[in-house]
Amino acid sequence: MIKQAKLSNKCQITIPKEVRKLLEIDKGDDVVFFVEDNEIKLTSTKNISLKLKNINKKTTIKKEKNNEKK
After folding, report:
1. Which terminus of the chain faces fewer neighbouring Cβ atoms within 10 Å, N or C?
2. Alpha-carbon dihedral of residues 21, 23, 28, 32, nearest 10 degrees?
C-alpha cells in the first residue's frame, strides 16, 4: 500500500485513514518512527509492546532450555 500526505505549515501530517486502520491507531494514540537507510517506518506503540513481549518470551525460553542442559 502506498499513500501520500502533505506537510502542513507546522510540518505536521495526517496519517491516511487506511493506514490508521491497518495500524489500529486512533486519536491520542502514540506512534513510533523508525528511520533506517533513509526510509521511515511507522508503527503503533501497542505493536512495539507486543513485539517486545514476544522477544522476551523467546529469550526466556532459550535461557530456560540452556539452564536445563547444564
Report:
1. C
2. -150
